[in-house]
Amino acid sequence: MSLYVDEYPEEAKVIKATFLVSFVALGIGAFFGLIQGLHRTGFVRVLPSTDYYTILTGHGVLLALVFTIFYLLGLFTWAVTRSLESPLPNIKLTWAWFGLTTTGATFAAIAIVAGLFPSLDMSADVLYTFYAPLQAHPLFYVGLAMFIIGTWMAGADWFLAFRKWRSEHPDERIPLQTFMVLTTMVMWYLSTLGVAISVVFFFIPWSLGFIDTINPLLTRTLFWYFGHPVVYFWLMPAYLLWYTVLPKLSGGRLFSDPLARVVFVLFLLLSTPVGIHHQYLDPGIAEGFKFIAMTNTMFLLLPSLLTAFTVVASMEHGARQRGGKGYLKWLGVLPWRDPAFTGMALAGLMFAAGGFSGMINAGMNINYLIHNTLWVPGHFHLTVGTAVALTMMAGAYWLVPQLTGRRLYSRPIGLFQVVTWFVGMVFMSNAMHRAGLLGIPRRTAEPQYQSFDFTATIGSVAELRAQLAIGAVLLFLSVVLFLFNILLSSIEDPIEMPVDDRIPAPLSGASGSPVVLDNLKLWTAIAAILVILAYVIPLASIIRDAGLFGRTVAVPVLIDGFNMLMGVIA
Ligand code: HAS
Ligand code: CU1
Hints:
Helix content: 55-70%
Number of strands: 0
Distance between the termini: 74 Å
Low-confidence stretches: none
Structural class: mainly alpha
Bound molecules: heme-as, copper (I) ion
Radius of gyration: 23 Å
Protein backbone atom coordinates (compact mmCIF):
# COMPACT_ATOMS: atom_id res chain seq x y z
CA MET A 1 0.00 0.00 0.00
CA SER A 2 1.37 3.39 -0.90
CA LEU A 3 0.47 6.75 0.57
CA TYR A 4 -2.35 8.92 -0.85
CA VAL A 5 0.07 11.54 -2.16
CA ASP A 6 2.04 8.93 -4.12
CA GLU A 7 -1.05 7.38 -5.60
CA TYR A 8 -2.96 10.59 -6.42
CA PRO A 9 -0.36 13.40 -6.61
CA GLU A 10 -2.58 15.84 -8.54
CA GLU A 11 -5.58 15.40 -6.26
CA ALA A 12 -3.31 15.72 -3.22
CA LYS A 13 -2.24 19.15 -4.54
CA VAL A 14 -5.86 20.31 -4.86
CA ILE A 15 -6.71 19.03 -1.38
CA LYS A 16 -3.70 20.80 0.12
CA ALA A 17 -4.83 23.99 -1.61
CA THR A 18 -8.39 23.70 -0.22
CA PHE A 19 -6.99 23.02 3.26
CA LEU A 20 -4.75 26.06 2.95
CA VAL A 21 -7.73 28.33 2.20
CA SER A 22 -9.70 26.65 4.95
CA PHE A 23 -6.99 27.16 7.58
CA VAL A 24 -6.27 30.78 6.60
CA ALA A 25 -9.99 31.49 7.08
CA LEU A 26 -9.85 29.65 10.42
CA GLY A 27 -7.00 31.85 11.64
CA ILE A 28 -8.61 35.18 10.66
CA GLY A 29 -12.10 34.09 11.77
CA ALA A 30 -10.82 32.97 15.17
CA PHE A 31 -9.01 36.31 15.63
CA PHE A 32 -12.30 38.13 14.94
CA GLY A 33 -13.95 35.80 17.47
CA LEU A 34 -11.44 36.83 20.12
CA ILE A 35 -12.01 40.53 19.40
CA GLN A 36 -15.78 40.27 19.71
CA GLY A 37 -15.75 37.87 22.69
CA LEU A 38 -13.67 40.38 24.65
CA HIS A 39 -15.66 43.33 23.29
CA ARG A 40 -19.18 42.23 24.16
CA THR A 41 -18.11 41.15 27.64
CA GLY A 42 -16.46 44.56 28.11
CA PHE A 43 -12.97 43.25 29.04
CA VAL A 44 -10.96 44.66 26.12
CA ARG A 45 -12.30 46.99 23.45
CA VAL A 46 -9.98 47.66 20.53
CA LEU A 47 -12.61 48.88 18.06
CA PRO A 48 -15.69 51.10 18.38
CA SER A 49 -18.97 49.26 18.88
CA THR A 50 -20.11 50.49 15.48
CA ASP A 51 -17.57 48.10 13.91
CA TYR A 52 -19.00 45.11 15.80
CA TYR A 53 -21.17 43.94 12.91
CA THR A 54 -18.19 44.01 10.53
CA ILE A 55 -16.21 41.77 12.87
CA LEU A 56 -19.20 39.52 13.56
CA THR A 57 -19.92 39.13 9.84
CA GLY A 58 -16.27 38.28 9.19
CA HIS A 59 -16.29 35.78 12.05
CA GLY A 60 -19.47 34.06 10.84
CA VAL A 61 -18.66 33.98 7.12
CA LEU A 62 -15.00 32.98 7.48
CA LEU A 63 -15.58 30.25 10.04
CA ALA A 64 -19.05 28.89 9.29
CA LEU A 65 -18.83 29.11 5.51
CA VAL A 66 -15.20 29.32 4.36
CA PHE A 67 -13.28 27.21 6.92
CA THR A 68 -15.85 24.38 6.98
CA ILE A 69 -16.76 24.22 3.29
CA PHE A 70 -13.20 24.40 1.96
CA TYR A 71 -12.30 21.61 4.37
CA LEU A 72 -15.28 19.66 3.01
CA LEU A 73 -14.10 20.23 -0.58
CA GLY A 74 -10.73 18.70 0.27
CA LEU A 75 -12.09 15.89 2.42
CA PHE A 76 -14.71 14.83 -0.13
CA THR A 77 -12.11 14.83 -2.92
CA TRP A 78 -9.94 12.55 -0.77
CA ALA A 79 -12.90 10.32 0.13
CA VAL A 80 -14.19 9.90 -3.43
CA THR A 81 -10.81 9.13 -4.99
CA ARG A 82 -9.61 6.75 -2.28
CA SER A 83 -12.90 4.88 -1.97
CA LEU A 84 -13.41 4.53 -5.75
CA GLU A 85 -9.67 3.78 -6.07
CA SER A 86 -9.48 6.05 -9.09
CA PRO A 87 -8.26 9.59 -9.79
CA LEU A 88 -10.75 12.32 -10.71
CA PRO A 89 -11.67 12.15 -14.42
CA ASN A 90 -10.81 15.74 -15.31
CA ILE A 91 -8.29 17.55 -13.12
CA LYS A 92 -8.84 20.81 -15.04
CA LEU A 93 -12.43 20.83 -13.81
CA THR A 94 -11.10 20.21 -10.30
CA TRP A 95 -8.78 23.22 -10.45
CA ALA A 96 -11.58 25.28 -12.04
CA TRP A 97 -13.92 24.75 -9.06
CA PHE A 98 -11.09 25.44 -6.68
CA GLY A 99 -10.40 28.72 -8.51
CA LEU A 100 -14.03 29.77 -8.58
CA THR A 101 -14.77 29.01 -4.92
CA THR A 102 -11.56 30.72 -3.81
CA THR A 103 -12.21 33.85 -5.88
CA GLY A 104 -15.81 34.01 -4.63
CA ALA A 105 -14.77 33.64 -0.99
CA THR A 106 -12.06 36.28 -1.45
CA PHE A 107 -14.57 38.75 -2.96
CA ALA A 108 -16.94 38.26 -0.04
CA ALA A 109 -14.09 38.63 2.47
CA ILE A 110 -12.85 41.84 0.81
CA ALA A 111 -16.34 43.36 0.91
CA ILE A 112 -16.66 42.52 4.61
CA VAL A 113 -13.23 43.69 5.79
CA ALA A 114 -13.54 46.90 3.74
CA GLY A 115 -16.23 47.89 6.27
CA LEU A 116 -13.42 48.67 8.73
CA PHE A 117 -12.10 51.39 6.38
CA PRO A 118 -14.79 54.05 5.87
CA SER A 119 -12.82 55.78 3.08
CA LEU A 120 -13.30 52.71 0.87
CA ASP A 121 -17.07 53.24 0.72
CA MET A 122 -17.70 49.51 0.69
CA SER A 123 -19.16 47.28 3.40
CA ALA A 124 -21.03 44.05 3.99
CA ASP A 125 -22.00 44.28 7.66
CA VAL A 126 -24.98 42.03 7.11
CA LEU A 127 -23.95 38.95 9.15
CA TYR A 128 -23.69 35.53 7.60
CA THR A 129 -27.49 35.36 7.29
CA PHE A 130 -27.62 38.62 5.21
CA TYR A 131 -31.19 39.41 6.21
CA ALA A 132 -32.79 42.19 4.14
CA PRO A 133 -33.27 45.10 4.52
CA LEU A 134 -29.61 45.16 5.66
CA GLN A 135 -27.73 45.70 2.44
CA ALA A 136 -24.17 44.75 1.46
CA HIS A 137 -21.95 45.90 -1.40
CA PRO A 138 -22.70 43.91 -4.61
CA LEU A 139 -19.22 42.33 -4.41
CA PHE A 140 -20.37 40.37 -1.35
CA TYR A 141 -23.36 38.82 -3.11
CA VAL A 142 -21.42 38.20 -6.33
CA GLY A 143 -18.71 36.47 -4.29
CA LEU A 144 -21.33 34.29 -2.60
CA ALA A 145 -22.87 33.34 -5.94
CA MET A 146 -19.45 32.37 -7.36
CA PHE A 147 -18.68 30.34 -4.27
CA ILE A 148 -21.93 28.39 -4.54
CA ILE A 149 -21.52 27.74 -8.26
CA GLY A 150 -17.99 26.48 -7.49
CA THR A 151 -19.38 23.96 -4.99
CA TRP A 152 -21.87 22.77 -7.64
CA MET A 153 -18.97 22.18 -10.01
CA ALA A 154 -17.13 20.24 -7.31
CA GLY A 155 -20.22 18.04 -6.90
CA ALA A 156 -20.30 17.49 -10.68
CA ASP A 157 -16.63 16.47 -10.54
CA TRP A 158 -17.38 13.80 -7.91
CA PHE A 159 -20.51 12.59 -9.75
CA LEU A 160 -18.48 12.22 -12.97
CA ALA A 161 -15.90 10.16 -11.09
CA PHE A 162 -18.72 7.99 -9.78
CA ARG A 163 -20.28 7.59 -13.23
CA LYS A 164 -16.99 6.36 -14.63
CA TRP A 165 -16.59 3.92 -11.76
CA ARG A 166 -20.17 2.69 -12.21
CA SER A 167 -19.60 1.90 -15.89
CA GLU A 168 -16.66 -0.29 -14.86
CA HIS A 169 -18.40 -1.85 -11.81
CA PRO A 170 -22.08 -2.18 -12.81
CA ASP A 171 -23.12 -4.59 -10.06
CA GLU A 172 -21.12 -3.43 -7.05
CA ARG A 173 -22.44 -1.50 -4.05
CA ILE A 174 -21.39 2.16 -4.00
CA PRO A 175 -18.34 2.39 -1.70
CA LEU A 176 -19.49 3.87 1.61
CA GLN A 177 -17.45 7.09 1.56
CA THR A 178 -18.57 7.88 -1.99
CA PHE A 179 -22.16 7.12 -0.99
CA MET A 180 -21.84 9.67 1.82
CA VAL A 181 -20.42 12.30 -0.53
CA LEU A 182 -23.09 11.78 -3.20
CA THR A 183 -26.09 11.87 -0.81
CA THR A 184 -24.66 15.00 0.84
CA MET A 185 -24.24 16.65 -2.55
CA VAL A 186 -27.79 15.85 -3.68
CA MET A 187 -28.99 17.50 -0.47
CA TRP A 188 -26.73 20.46 -1.26
CA TYR A 189 -28.04 20.86 -4.84
CA LEU A 190 -31.61 20.78 -3.63
CA SER A 191 -31.09 23.24 -0.79
CA THR A 192 -28.75 25.76 -2.44
CA LEU A 193 -31.49 26.46 -5.00
CA GLY A 194 -33.12 28.62 -2.31
CA VAL A 195 -30.11 30.80 -1.60
CA ALA A 196 -29.11 30.94 -5.29
CA ILE A 197 -32.55 32.28 -6.26
CA SER A 198 -32.49 34.80 -3.44
CA VAL A 199 -28.97 36.06 -4.28
CA VAL A 200 -29.26 36.10 -8.07
CA PHE A 201 -32.85 37.35 -8.50
CA PHE A 202 -33.19 39.63 -5.50
CA PHE A 203 -29.98 40.63 -3.68
CA ILE A 204 -27.68 41.28 -6.65
CA PRO A 205 -30.21 43.41 -8.64
CA TRP A 206 -31.23 45.19 -5.42
CA SER A 207 -27.66 46.01 -4.37
CA LEU A 208 -26.89 47.24 -7.90
CA GLY A 209 -29.95 49.50 -7.82
CA PHE A 210 -31.86 47.70 -10.60
CA ILE A 211 -34.76 47.16 -8.22
CA ASP A 212 -35.64 49.53 -5.38
CA THR A 213 -37.46 47.33 -2.94
CA ILE A 214 -37.25 43.83 -1.55
CA ASN A 215 -39.53 41.41 0.30
CA PRO A 216 -37.55 40.65 3.48
CA LEU A 217 -39.74 37.74 4.54
CA LEU A 218 -39.34 36.10 1.13
CA THR A 219 -35.54 36.38 1.04
CA ARG A 220 -35.38 35.31 4.69
CA THR A 221 -37.49 32.23 4.01
CA LEU A 222 -35.37 31.37 0.98
CA PHE A 223 -32.30 31.80 3.19
CA TRP A 224 -33.59 29.36 5.82
CA TYR A 225 -34.72 26.96 3.11
CA PHE A 226 -30.95 26.66 2.57
CA GLY A 227 -29.88 27.65 6.10
CA HIS A 228 -30.93 24.49 7.86
CA PRO A 229 -29.51 22.02 5.30
CA VAL A 230 -26.26 23.98 5.35
CA VAL A 231 -25.78 22.91 8.99
CA TYR A 232 -25.81 19.31 7.80
CA PHE A 233 -23.47 20.24 4.97
CA TRP A 234 -21.07 21.17 7.78
CA LEU A 235 -21.94 18.11 9.83
CA MET A 236 -21.70 15.45 7.10
CA PRO A 237 -17.90 15.75 6.69
CA ALA A 238 -17.63 15.26 10.45
CA TYR A 239 -19.94 12.25 10.24
CA LEU A 240 -17.89 10.86 7.35
CA LEU A 241 -14.85 11.00 9.66
CA TRP A 242 -16.76 9.59 12.66
CA TYR A 243 -18.10 6.66 10.64
CA THR A 244 -15.10 5.75 8.57
CA VAL A 245 -12.02 7.00 10.47
CA LEU A 246 -12.89 7.18 14.19
CA PRO A 247 -13.63 3.41 14.50
CA LYS A 248 -10.23 2.69 12.97
CA LEU A 249 -8.47 5.16 15.28
CA SER A 250 -10.23 3.46 18.20
CA GLY A 251 -8.60 0.18 17.13
CA GLY A 252 -11.71 -1.41 15.64
CA ARG A 253 -14.11 -1.35 12.71
CA LEU A 254 -17.34 0.39 11.82
CA PHE A 255 -20.24 -1.46 13.47
CA SER A 256 -22.68 -1.30 10.54
CA ASP A 257 -22.31 -0.03 6.99
CA PRO A 258 -26.07 -0.30 6.14
CA LEU A 259 -27.00 1.76 9.19
CA ALA A 260 -24.59 4.47 8.03
CA ARG A 261 -26.31 4.49 4.63
CA VAL A 262 -29.74 4.78 6.24
CA VAL A 263 -28.50 7.81 8.20
CA PHE A 264 -27.26 9.63 5.11
CA VAL A 265 -30.49 8.86 3.21
CA LEU A 266 -32.53 10.27 6.12
CA PHE A 267 -30.47 13.47 6.04
CA LEU A 268 -31.08 13.80 2.31
CA LEU A 269 -34.83 13.37 2.78
CA LEU A 270 -35.40 15.49 5.86
CA SER A 271 -32.79 18.27 5.94
CA THR A 272 -34.62 20.76 3.73
CA PRO A 273 -38.31 20.66 4.71
CA VAL A 274 -37.51 21.96 8.23
CA GLY A 275 -35.99 25.41 7.57
CA ILE A 276 -39.01 27.22 8.98
CA HIS A 277 -37.92 26.13 12.50
CA HIS A 278 -35.60 29.18 12.31
CA GLN A 279 -38.66 31.36 11.75
CA TYR A 280 -41.05 30.37 14.54
CA LEU A 281 -41.12 34.03 15.57
CA ASP A 282 -41.49 35.49 12.09
CA PRO A 283 -44.87 37.09 11.57
CA GLY A 284 -46.30 36.41 8.13
CA ILE A 285 -45.93 32.62 8.20
CA ALA A 286 -49.01 30.75 9.43
CA GLU A 287 -48.68 28.62 12.59
CA GLY A 288 -49.64 25.45 10.71
CA PHE A 289 -46.53 25.60 8.50
CA LYS A 290 -44.40 26.15 11.58
CA PHE A 291 -46.00 23.10 13.14
CA ILE A 292 -45.13 20.98 10.07
CA ALA A 293 -41.52 22.20 10.26
CA MET A 294 -41.40 21.27 13.95
CA THR A 295 -42.71 17.75 13.29
CA ASN A 296 -40.18 17.19 10.51
CA THR A 297 -37.40 18.49 12.77
CA MET A 298 -38.27 15.96 15.46
CA PHE A 299 -38.01 13.18 12.84
CA LEU A 300 -34.68 14.62 11.82
CA LEU A 301 -33.28 13.81 15.28
CA LEU A 302 -33.39 10.15 14.33
CA PRO A 303 -30.32 9.99 12.06
CA SER A 304 -28.18 11.68 14.73
CA LEU A 305 -29.49 9.37 17.44
CA LEU A 306 -28.67 6.40 15.17
CA THR A 307 -25.22 7.91 14.69
CA ALA A 308 -24.66 8.19 18.44
CA PHE A 309 -25.46 4.49 18.72
CA THR A 310 -23.42 3.27 15.73
CA VAL A 311 -20.32 5.37 16.36
CA VAL A 312 -20.15 4.64 20.10
CA ALA A 313 -20.72 0.92 19.38
CA SER A 314 -17.81 1.03 16.92
CA MET A 315 -15.61 2.74 19.50
CA GLU A 316 -16.54 0.11 22.06
CA HIS A 317 -15.67 -2.62 19.57
CA GLY A 318 -12.29 -0.97 19.07
CA ALA A 319 -11.72 -0.72 22.81
CA ARG A 320 -12.55 -4.42 23.29
CA GLN A 321 -10.07 -5.32 20.54
CA ARG A 322 -7.51 -3.49 22.65
CA GLY A 323 -8.40 -5.56 25.70
CA GLY A 324 -11.06 -3.24 27.18
CA LYS A 325 -13.53 -4.86 29.60
CA GLY A 326 -16.62 -4.04 31.70
CA TYR A 327 -19.64 -1.79 31.09
CA LEU A 328 -17.70 1.46 31.01
CA LYS A 329 -14.12 0.51 31.89
CA TRP A 330 -13.38 -0.06 28.18
CA LEU A 331 -13.40 3.72 27.77
CA GLY A 332 -10.06 3.84 29.58
CA VAL A 333 -8.16 1.74 27.00
CA LEU A 334 -9.09 3.96 24.05
CA PRO A 335 -6.05 5.74 22.50
CA TRP A 336 -6.45 9.00 24.41
CA ARG A 337 -2.88 10.11 23.59
CA ASP A 338 -3.69 10.30 19.90
CA PRO A 339 -4.88 13.86 19.12
CA ALA A 340 -6.86 12.69 16.06
CA PHE A 341 -8.82 10.22 18.18
CA THR A 342 -9.23 12.42 21.25
CA GLY A 343 -10.29 15.46 19.21
CA MET A 344 -13.02 13.50 17.44
CA ALA A 345 -14.22 11.75 20.62
CA LEU A 346 -14.45 15.05 22.52
CA ALA A 347 -16.22 16.62 19.54
CA GLY A 348 -18.78 13.78 19.66
CA LEU A 349 -19.28 14.25 23.38
CA MET A 350 -19.95 17.96 22.92
CA PHE A 351 -22.34 17.18 20.10
CA ALA A 352 -24.49 15.16 22.48
CA ALA A 353 -25.00 18.41 24.47
CA GLY A 354 -25.40 20.52 21.32
CA GLY A 355 -28.02 18.09 20.00
CA PHE A 356 -29.89 18.45 23.26
CA SER A 357 -30.02 22.23 23.01
CA GLY A 358 -31.12 21.73 19.39
CA MET A 359 -34.12 19.73 20.58
CA ILE A 360 -35.03 22.64 22.84
CA ASN A 361 -34.70 25.10 19.95
CA ALA A 362 -36.93 22.90 17.85
CA GLY A 363 -39.95 22.99 20.17
CA MET A 364 -42.17 25.82 18.96
CA ASN A 365 -43.22 26.97 22.41
CA ILE A 366 -39.82 26.68 24.13
CA ASN A 367 -38.18 28.40 21.17
CA TYR A 368 -40.01 31.62 22.11
CA LEU A 369 -37.94 31.68 25.30
CA ILE A 370 -34.52 31.40 23.69
CA HIS A 371 -34.89 32.84 20.17
CA ASN A 372 -32.49 35.72 19.46
CA THR A 373 -30.75 35.23 22.82
CA LEU A 374 -27.18 34.07 23.48
CA TRP A 375 -28.58 30.54 23.93
CA VAL A 376 -28.57 30.14 20.12
CA PRO A 377 -24.83 30.95 19.68
CA GLY A 378 -24.30 28.58 22.65
CA HIS A 379 -26.05 25.87 20.63
CA PHE A 380 -24.14 26.44 17.44
CA HIS A 381 -20.74 26.73 19.06
CA LEU A 382 -21.30 23.16 20.28
CA THR A 383 -22.54 21.92 16.90
CA VAL A 384 -20.68 23.66 14.09
CA GLY A 385 -18.11 25.17 16.48
CA THR A 386 -17.14 21.88 18.10
CA ALA A 387 -18.73 18.76 16.61
CA VAL A 388 -17.64 20.01 13.18
CA ALA A 389 -14.66 22.32 13.77
CA LEU A 390 -12.89 20.12 16.34
CA THR A 391 -13.47 16.98 14.24
CA MET A 392 -12.01 18.77 11.23
CA MET A 393 -8.92 19.88 13.13
CA ALA A 394 -8.47 16.42 14.67
CA GLY A 395 -9.00 14.83 11.26
CA ALA A 396 -6.27 17.06 9.81
CA TYR A 397 -3.72 15.46 12.16
CA TRP A 398 -4.40 12.15 10.43
CA LEU A 399 -5.04 13.42 6.90
CA VAL A 400 -2.31 16.00 6.36
CA PRO A 401 0.55 13.42 6.68
CA GLN A 402 -1.15 11.40 3.91
CA LEU A 403 -1.18 14.47 1.67
CA THR A 404 2.38 15.59 2.33
CA GLY A 405 4.29 12.40 3.13
CA ARG A 406 5.58 14.15 6.27
CA ARG A 407 4.86 13.23 9.87
CA LEU A 408 2.92 15.43 12.26
CA TYR A 409 5.27 17.91 13.93
CA SER A 410 4.07 17.28 17.51
CA ARG A 411 1.46 14.88 18.88
CA PRO A 412 1.63 16.34 22.44
CA ILE A 413 0.94 19.85 21.10
CA GLY A 414 -1.92 18.36 19.05
CA LEU A 415 -3.33 16.69 22.15
CA PHE A 416 -3.02 19.87 24.20
CA GLN A 417 -4.69 21.78 21.36
CA VAL A 418 -7.80 19.59 21.14
CA VAL A 419 -8.19 19.53 24.93
CA THR A 420 -7.83 23.34 25.05
CA TRP A 421 -10.64 23.59 22.50
CA PHE A 422 -12.82 21.31 24.58
CA VAL A 423 -12.20 23.21 27.83
CA GLY A 424 -12.58 26.61 26.14
CA MET A 425 -15.87 25.53 24.66
CA VAL A 426 -17.15 24.15 27.98
CA PHE A 427 -16.67 27.64 29.43
CA MET A 428 -18.04 29.53 26.49
CA SER A 429 -21.03 27.43 25.53
CA ASN A 430 -22.12 26.94 29.13
CA ALA A 431 -22.01 30.70 29.72
CA MET A 432 -23.86 31.41 26.47
CA HIS A 433 -26.66 28.93 27.15
CA ARG A 434 -27.18 30.24 30.66
CA ALA A 435 -26.99 33.88 29.58
CA GLY A 436 -29.61 33.14 26.93
CA LEU A 437 -31.98 31.84 29.57
CA LEU A 438 -31.69 35.21 31.32
CA GLY A 439 -32.72 36.88 28.07
CA ILE A 440 -29.31 38.34 27.22
CA PRO A 441 -29.51 39.02 23.46
CA ARG A 442 -27.26 37.75 20.66
CA ARG A 443 -25.87 39.87 17.77
CA THR A 444 -25.04 42.98 19.78
CA ALA A 445 -21.94 44.79 21.03
CA GLU A 446 -23.82 46.26 23.98
CA PRO A 447 -25.79 43.39 25.52
CA GLN A 448 -26.26 45.14 28.84
CA TYR A 449 -28.68 47.76 27.44
CA GLN A 450 -28.79 51.06 29.24
CA SER A 451 -30.64 51.14 32.57
CA PHE A 452 -31.61 47.48 32.40
CA ASP A 453 -30.21 44.77 34.69
CA PHE A 454 -30.32 41.10 33.83
CA THR A 455 -30.54 39.14 37.06
CA ALA A 456 -29.18 35.63 37.39
CA THR A 457 -30.86 33.16 39.73
CA ILE A 458 -27.73 31.00 39.86
CA GLY A 459 -24.29 32.67 39.71
CA SER A 460 -24.08 36.20 38.36
CA VAL A 461 -24.00 38.02 35.05
CA ALA A 462 -20.41 39.09 35.76
CA GLU A 463 -19.42 35.45 36.20
CA LEU A 464 -21.06 34.53 32.88
CA ARG A 465 -19.24 37.35 31.14
CA ALA A 466 -15.92 36.17 32.59
CA GLN A 467 -16.57 32.56 31.50
CA LEU A 468 -17.39 33.72 28.00
CA ALA A 469 -14.20 35.78 27.78
CA ILE A 470 -12.02 32.95 29.19
CA GLY A 471 -13.58 30.62 26.63
CA ALA A 472 -12.83 33.03 23.78
CA VAL A 473 -9.17 33.32 24.83
CA LEU A 474 -8.71 29.54 25.15
CA LEU A 475 -10.33 28.91 21.78
CA PHE A 476 -8.11 31.45 20.08
CA LEU A 477 -5.05 29.91 21.72
CA SER A 478 -6.17 26.50 20.49
CA VAL A 479 -6.43 27.73 16.88
CA VAL A 480 -2.94 29.27 17.10
CA LEU A 481 -1.53 25.95 18.35
CA PHE A 482 -3.32 24.07 15.58
CA LEU A 483 -2.01 26.33 12.81
CA PHE A 484 1.49 26.29 14.30
CA ASN A 485 1.50 22.47 14.43
CA ILE A 486 0.24 22.09 10.85
CA LEU A 487 2.66 24.72 9.55
CA LEU A 488 5.67 23.07 11.17
CA SER A 489 4.47 19.64 9.95
CA SER A 490 4.69 20.90 6.40
CA ILE A 491 8.44 21.51 6.69
CA GLU A 492 9.33 18.15 8.27
CA ASP A 493 11.46 15.79 6.14
CA PRO A 494 9.44 13.40 3.97
CA ILE A 495 9.36 9.82 5.29
CA GLU A 496 8.10 6.48 3.96
CA MET A 497 4.87 5.91 5.94
CA PRO A 498 4.17 8.87 8.23
CA VAL A 499 0.75 7.52 9.27
CA ASP A 500 -1.19 4.25 9.17
CA ASP A 501 -3.82 5.19 6.60
CA ARG A 502 -5.62 1.84 6.20
CA ILE A 503 -9.35 1.73 6.89
CA PRO A 504 -10.59 -1.78 7.79
CA ALA A 505 -13.89 -3.15 6.42
CA PRO A 506 -17.03 -2.68 8.57
CA LEU A 507 -18.17 -5.48 10.90
CA SER A 508 -21.46 -5.66 9.05
CA GLY A 509 -20.83 -4.83 5.40
CA ALA A 510 -23.06 -3.45 2.65
CA SER A 511 -23.62 -6.75 0.86
CA GLY A 512 -26.49 -8.01 3.03
CA SER A 513 -28.41 -4.72 3.11
CA PRO A 514 -31.33 -3.78 0.81
CA VAL A 515 -30.16 -2.67 -2.63
CA VAL A 516 -32.76 0.10 -2.61
CA LEU A 517 -30.52 2.05 -0.20
CA ASP A 518 -28.20 2.77 -3.13
CA ASN A 519 -31.01 4.05 -5.37
CA LEU A 520 -30.06 7.72 -5.41
CA LYS A 521 -32.69 8.64 -8.00
CA LEU A 522 -35.49 7.36 -5.77
CA TRP A 523 -34.25 9.26 -2.69
CA THR A 524 -33.74 12.43 -4.72
CA ALA A 525 -37.32 12.24 -6.01
CA ILE A 526 -38.79 11.71 -2.52
CA ALA A 527 -36.66 14.54 -1.11
CA ALA A 528 -37.91 16.89 -3.85
CA ILE A 529 -41.55 15.96 -3.16
CA LEU A 530 -41.13 16.62 0.58
CA VAL A 531 -39.60 20.02 -0.20
CA ILE A 532 -42.50 20.92 -2.47
CA LEU A 533 -45.04 19.88 0.17
CA ALA A 534 -43.31 21.90 2.89
CA TYR A 535 -42.56 25.08 0.93
CA VAL A 536 -44.87 25.79 -2.01
CA ILE A 537 -47.84 27.09 -0.01
CA PRO A 538 -45.84 29.17 2.54
CA LEU A 539 -43.83 30.80 -0.27
CA ALA A 540 -46.96 31.45 -2.32
CA SER A 541 -48.67 33.14 0.64
CA ILE A 542 -45.58 35.28 1.39
CA ILE A 543 -45.53 36.47 -2.24
CA ARG A 544 -49.30 37.05 -2.25
CA ASP A 545 -49.05 39.18 0.92
CA ALA A 546 -46.24 41.55 -0.04
CA GLY A 547 -45.38 40.88 -3.69
CA LEU A 548 -42.31 39.31 -5.23
CA PHE A 549 -40.20 42.41 -4.73
CA GLY A 550 -41.91 43.64 -1.57
CA ARG A 551 -42.13 47.24 -0.47
CA THR A 552 -39.08 47.58 1.78
CA VAL A 553 -36.18 49.88 0.92
CA ALA A 554 -32.59 49.21 1.97
CA VAL A 555 -31.33 50.16 5.41
CA PRO A 556 -27.66 51.16 5.12
CA VAL A 557 -25.68 49.42 7.85
CA LEU A 558 -23.72 52.50 8.78
CA ILE A 559 -23.90 54.64 11.85
CA ASP A 560 -25.03 57.51 9.58
CA GLY A 561 -27.80 55.28 8.34
CA PHE A 562 -28.81 54.57 11.92
CA ASN A 563 -28.90 58.27 12.74
CA MET A 564 -30.86 58.92 9.57
CA LEU A 565 -33.38 56.25 10.53
CA MET A 566 -33.73 57.73 14.01
CA GLY A 567 -34.31 61.12 12.37
CA VAL A 568 -37.08 59.66 10.23
CA ILE A 569 -38.72 57.99 13.23
CA ALA A 570 -38.45 61.15 15.35
FE1 HAS B 1 -29.21 23.83 15.13
C1 HAS B 1 -30.17 27.14 15.26
C2 HAS B 1 -32.40 22.85 15.84
C3 HAS B 1 -28.27 20.52 14.85
C4 HAS B 1 -26.22 24.80 13.73
N1 HAS B 1 -28.36 25.63 14.62
C5 HAS B 1 -28.91 26.87 14.78
C6 HAS B 1 -27.97 27.87 14.32
C7 HAS B 1 -26.88 27.19 13.84
C8 HAS B 1 -27.13 25.79 14.05
C9 HAS B 1 -25.63 27.80 13.21
O1 HAS B 1 -35.19 24.09 15.77
C10 HAS B 1 -28.18 29.38 14.39
C11 HAS B 1 -28.64 29.99 13.11
C12 HAS B 1 -28.75 31.49 13.27
O2 HAS B 1 -27.72 32.17 13.09
O3 HAS B 1 -29.82 31.98 13.61
N2 HAS B 1 -30.14 22.03 15.36
C13 HAS B 1 -31.44 21.86 15.70
C14 HAS B 1 -31.72 20.43 15.84
C15 HAS B 1 -30.55 19.77 15.56
C16 HAS B 1 -29.57 20.79 15.25
C17 HAS B 1 -33.02 19.80 16.20
N3 HAS B 1 -27.57 22.85 14.45
C18 HAS B 1 -27.40 21.48 14.40
C19 HAS B 1 -26.13 21.18 13.80
C20 HAS B 1 -25.56 22.39 13.47
C21 HAS B 1 -26.47 23.43 13.89
C22 HAS B 1 -25.61 19.79 13.56
C23 HAS B 1 -24.27 22.70 12.82
C24 HAS B 1 -23.39 21.84 12.41
N4 HAS B 1 -30.92 24.81 15.51
C25 HAS B 1 -32.15 24.22 15.71
C26 HAS B 1 -33.19 25.26 15.78
C27 HAS B 1 -32.55 26.48 15.61
C28 HAS B 1 -31.15 26.17 15.45
C29 HAS B 1 -34.63 25.09 15.98
C30 HAS B 1 -33.20 27.88 15.60
C31 HAS B 1 -33.05 28.53 16.92
C32 HAS B 1 -33.53 29.97 16.89
O4 HAS B 1 -34.56 30.24 17.53
O5 HAS B 1 -32.91 30.83 16.26
C33 HAS B 1 -30.35 18.27 15.52
O6 HAS B 1 -29.82 17.88 14.28
C34 HAS B 1 -29.47 17.76 16.64
C35 HAS B 1 -29.43 16.26 16.69
C36 HAS B 1 -28.28 15.77 17.52
C37 HAS B 1 -28.33 14.80 18.44
C38 HAS B 1 -27.08 14.40 19.19
C39 HAS B 1 -26.63 12.98 18.88
C40 HAS B 1 -25.29 12.73 19.50
C41 HAS B 1 -24.21 12.27 18.84
C42 HAS B 1 -22.91 12.14 19.60
C43 HAS B 1 -22.27 10.79 19.54
C44 HAS B 1 -21.07 10.72 20.43
C45 HAS B 1 -19.81 10.39 20.02
C46 HAS B 1 -18.66 10.47 20.96
C47 HAS B 1 -19.50 10.00 18.64
C48 HAS B 1 -29.59 14.09 18.76
C49 HAS B 1 -24.24 11.87 17.41
C50 HAS B 1 -18.74 9.53 22.07
C51 HAS B 1 -17.55 9.75 22.91
C52 HAS B 1 -17.16 8.88 23.85
C53 HAS B 1 -15.99 9.20 24.67
C54 HAS B 1 -17.89 7.61 24.14
CU1 CU1 C 1 -32.00 24.49 11.68
